[in-house]
Design goal:
Number of strands: 0
Shape: elongated
Radius of gyration: 24 Å
Number of helices: 5
């Protein structure tokens, strides 16, 4: 019987999909509560991201029998980060381009109000910036999501891999270990 080796991509993919569903729920909850799109509450979506990253690493560690090297811990967290970034980027594009394009106008209006209040830019500069933003908003959002998740997730994966690290002692024997057999038939 062939023994299956644990793969870091399986728990990473599972927890990334769970994070996607959670992010969708949070996004629509914020929309239905009519919260300001530039509110600092939007950073709450990083809490489930962190929790699921830790759970992906812990699940992979459990699959390996409770032992995890630093590299294995980082790899599982990094894969989770990549999967999550791609899934959230796709959702972000679909959300702003198809599902809720009115949110783009709401965000741009809030940005225009803030720029006008700051008084650092002329009205022509504000109009030019907002025109470009309106045209490429979904693309900017997708690229921003990918970079934010990649950078933030990589940093957190590096730190959490050190926390979850539990390397096997060189004196531990593995489950599949067979003692050496003598090669001389006379022995």
């Amino acid at each position: 019987m062939e023994v299956k080796k644990a793969s870091p991509s399986q728990p990473a993919l599972k927890w990334a999909l769970i994070n996607l569903v959670t992010s969708i729920v949070i996004t629509y909850a914020f929309q239905f509560m009519d919260l300001d799109p530039n509110s600092s509450l939007k950073y709450l979506s990083f809490l489930p991201f962190l929790a699921f990253l830790f759970l992906a690493q812990k699940e992979y560690k459990d699959q390996l029998g409770g032992y995890l090297t630093y590299g294995e811990g980082f790899l599982s967290g990094f894969l989770y980060t990549i999967f999550t970034g791609v899934f959230i980027a796709i959702f972000t594009y679909v959300y702003y381009a198809i599902l809720s394009p009115e949110m783009v106008n709401k965000i741009i209006d809030a940005s225009q109000k803030k720029m006008t209040e700051d008084g650092k830019l002329s009205q022509d500069q504000i109009d030019a910036a907002l025109s470009m933003t309106r045209k490429y908003f979904a693309v900017f959002a997708v690229v921003g999501v990918v970079f934010i998740y990649a950078i933030f997730g990589t940093i957190v994966s590096l730190i959490s891999a050190a926390v979850f690290k539990n390397e096997r002692s060189p004196f531990d024997t593995t489950d599949n270990y067979e003692s050496p057999k003598p090669t001389d038939p006379a022995v």
